Amino acid sequence: MSYSGGNEDRLSSLPEELNSSRYPVPPSSVSKWIDKAVKLNVCELLIKVRLFELPLSLFTCKTLTKLSLASTNMRGFVVPSLVILPALKTLDITVKTKVRENLPLPKLPNLKRLELKGFCSRWLLAIQFLETSSTLEHLCIEEPNESYWIEPQRVPTCMLSKLITMKITRCMGRECDIRFLEYMLRNAEVLKTLTITCGILRMRDEMALCARLLKFPRASRHCEIHFVGKWLNSTGN
After folding, report:
1. Higher pLDDT residue, 162 or 31?
2. What residues pair up with 142 in beta bridges, in sequence order?
3. Where are the beta strands (DSSP E) in the chain?
4. Which pLDDT belongs to residue 6?
């Protein structure tokens, strides 16, 4: 956790458990601690708890630029859609249980980097985040966990002029994975690199996935595909 405005000397006013705790704490206590950190002009915040409730004060914080959340569910990040995180530039979310779709998410007008891990690394949820993040430049999805894909009716604004890198790790090459990647290549107009790291695949499946991806049309003529697998490493223009 870091602060702006010379507030480091005010850390003593926070409970010791805010920085580390080996014991379960109720979500209401987490919320109170976060609210106090916001009042101290927090810049970076790392939250690793089983359950949490984010206070509304966090979503209007003008100093928070980096937020990392690790929890068993997304409940604490569900807020009214009109809520805005005005200064946030980096968001890293890890969820350990299944996440439902069409969650109300905050607006993230200045977000530059987004990382989704665990059960929040779903294609449709990723698109929801893209739709709320008009200036997003870097997207990382670890071990995508999705069984189907539905193409959105509108292309998110960031894909038309901002998104320049995308990284997918532990990709299993399922049909829904391939359809998502085809959509992104076809619509991301300024994308420079797409990096795909394979999960555990047989040689023929890995080579077939690479060959298929390299054939997809790309909206960006500067886009390179970097394919990293057990059997094959390839770069395609």
Report:
1. 162
2. 169
3. 2-3, 42-48, 66-71, 90-95, 113-118, 138-142, 165-171, 193-198, 224-228, 233-236
4. 47
Q: Residue 99: pLDDT above 80?
A: no
User: Among the listed ranges 14-18, 26-30, 85-89, which one has the minimum average pLDDT value?
Assistant: 14-18
Q: Which residues contact residue 22 at a Cβ distance below 8 angstroms, ignoring those fewer than 6 apart?
A: none
DSSP 3-state assignment of 31?
A: helix
Record the tokens describing residue 155, joined without a space: 């292309």
CA 202-196-121 angle, to 5 degrees, is 100
Place of tokens 């690199």: 193
Query: How many angstroms separate the CA atoms of 17 and 19, rounded?
Result: 5
Q: Residue length, the chain?
A: 237
CA dist 67 to 42, 89, 92, 94, Å? 10, 8, 6, 11
- Is residue 87 within 8 Å of 60, Cβ to Cβ? no
For the record, the structure tokens of 78 come out as 């569900």
pLDDT for the residue 135 = 97
Going by the DSSP 8-state scheme, the letter that residue 107 receives in this structure is B
User: What contacts 221, CB < 8 A, 6 or more positions away?
Assistant: none
Residue 68 has pLDDT above 70, yes or no: yes
DSSP state of 84: B
Which bin fits 178, alpha (ψ -120 to 50), beta or left (φ > 0)?
A: alpha
Can you give the pTM of this predicted structure? 0.85
CA dist 87 and 107 (Å) reads: 11
Q: Which of 211, 146, 210 minimizes the C-alpha distance to 180?
A: 146
